[in-house]
Write a structure and sequence with these properties.
The chain has helices at 3-17, 19-64, 80-88, 122-128, 154-160, 200-203, 211-217, 237-245, 257-260, 262-300, 302-310, 315-346, 348-359, 380-406, 410-414, and strands at residues 68-72, 93-108, 111-120, 135-137, 149-153, 167-177, 182-195, 206-210, 226-231, 252-256. With 417 residues, the chain is of the alpha+beta class. It has 2 domains: 3-60 and 264-414, no CATH class; 66-257, no CATH class. It is elongated and about 110 Å long.
């Protein structure tokens, strides 16, 4: 073992044992290490939560929405079969499903709720969406043409106070024109199922009916609102949308999820960057506490430094001694922070509900936030980046006091000894 490392380790251990003589220095050292540990752990946990939000947001939105949609620039899509065949034959497109999407109002007794009505073909819809795993009651295939069945989101069904098997009236905004007035079109539907996606926007505002029933209610004939596409690689959606556009009729457009829901993902990505910068300042402040610790240590060890210089130690060796001392402090803080942060990030979905039960509150209310749970996805790349960043900052913090130690004049240091 080189003597610089040996002396650096000795100074770290000696400072801990000699609490009476160097208690204040020892306290500052402990605060610095705990600050680094807290900052690193907070960075790992927060970035894991941000990654979890991105994953949950993507899965929940795309579990109900489509990876891409073929729609007409104006009005409905009359020749949707041709567009569906072209899209289905394109490499990378896993499944297609036509749909009708209109506004409507549900009425039951004295209760009325506005809703988004989506007419679907159950067999095709199951291939492009994830409703099969979200059903709390009934199945998507319970929607039969001509039977006027309806499936509601869990929050919408609860607010209407309706149970499966009961009747509910759906009112279409496009009405019948008579000499006396414009009469709305309405039809009684039977509730055949309830779904729960975990996203309040859909659970409280989406109703599913059979596509043929929707075409009849909204007087669309054989036209549809568009064709939904499921892709093998959802990140290829922008490229596939551009390439499909050149193969379809000029009156038809193709949109993808990166445009339809771009604001959600941009917001999460921006928050992740901002939180990373803010929490990195915690690590920086804790790391630069090492500067004050080492400056006081250098002042306290002037006699030792002078003796080492008289024994032949070079200024570079003296500098290395204190760099090692500061680096060891940083590594201890890093070890505690990385271990604590990783353990908390991996168990966050268990820890947070336990805290909520203990405090009797919910951090993320379902009617306020899109995601009511606190998800976590630990990415080891983030852990390595945070660790490297914190260690580099720690090393930079040791340079100035180490340089001060290397410049100590042995004669001046030993004058009053």
């Amino acid at each position: 073992m080189k003597y610089e490392l040996l002396i650096g380790l000795r100074y770290v251990r000696a400072r801990r044992r000699a609490a009476g003589r160097n208690g204040f220095i020892s306290f500052i050292s402990m605060v610095s290490m705990l600050g680094i540990a807290l900052g690193v752990a907070a960075l790992i946990v927060v970035l894991s939560v941000m990654n979890g939000f991105q994953r949950e947001l993507r899965e929940r939105i795309l579990g109900v929405a489509a990876h891409a949609q073929v729609v007409a620039y104006e009005g409905d899509l009359p020749n949707w079969q041709q567009a569906a065949d072209i899209a289905q034959a394109y490499p990378g497109v896993r499944a297609v499903a036509p749909f009708v999407q209109q506004q409507g109002m549900l009425s039951l007794g004295e209760t009325a709720r506005g809703t988004l009505v989506r007419g679907v073909l159950p067999e095709a819809e199951n291939r492009v969406a994830n409703f099969a795993d979200k059903m709390k009651a009934g199945k998507l295939t319970d929607l039969k043409p001509g039977e006027f069945g309806i499936i509601l989101g869990s929050d919408l069904a609860k607010s209407m106070g309706i149970l499966p098997g009961e009747k509910i009236t759906l009112i279409a905004p496009t009405g019948l024109v008579t000499p006396a007035a414009i009469l709305p079109r309405l039809k009684q539907f039977t509730l055949v199922g309830v779904f729960d996606t975990g996203m309040y926007e859909y659970d409280a505002g989406l109703a599913l009916i059979h596509m043929q029933d929707a075409q009849a209610l909204y007087r669309m004939g054989d036209s549809v609102s568009g064709v939904r596409l499921a892709l093998n690689d959802l990140y290829a959606a922008p490229r596939i949308a551009r390439e499909l556009l050149s193969r379809l009729d000029p009156s038809v457009g193709v949109t993808d999820w990166t445009r339809s829901h771009a604001n959600f993902f941009r917001a999460v990505q921006m928050e992740k960057k901002v939180m990373s910068i803010i929490l990195s300042l915690i690590v920086a402040v804790a790391a630069f506490n090492i500067v004050s610790t080492l400056v006081m240590a250098v002042q306290d060890k002037q006699a030792d430094i002078a003796i080492l210089r008289t024994l032949g130690a070079s200024p570079r060796s003296i500098m290395v001694v204190f760099v090692i001392q500061g680096a060891i402090m940083g590594l201890i803080g890093l070890g505690i922070g990385v271990t604590g942060g990783v353990l908390l990030a991996l168990n966050l979905e268990t820890v947070v509900p336990a805290i909520e039960r203990a405090l009797g509150l919910q951090f993320l209310a379902k009617d306020v936030y899109f995601i009511s749970d606190l998800p976590s996805q630990l990415l080891w790349g983030d852990v390595f980046t945070i660790t490297a960043m914190a260690f580099v900052v720690t090393l930079l913090a040791t340079l100035y006091p180490s340089w001060r130690a290397a410049r100590i004049n042995p004669a001046e240091a030993l004058r009053y000894e």
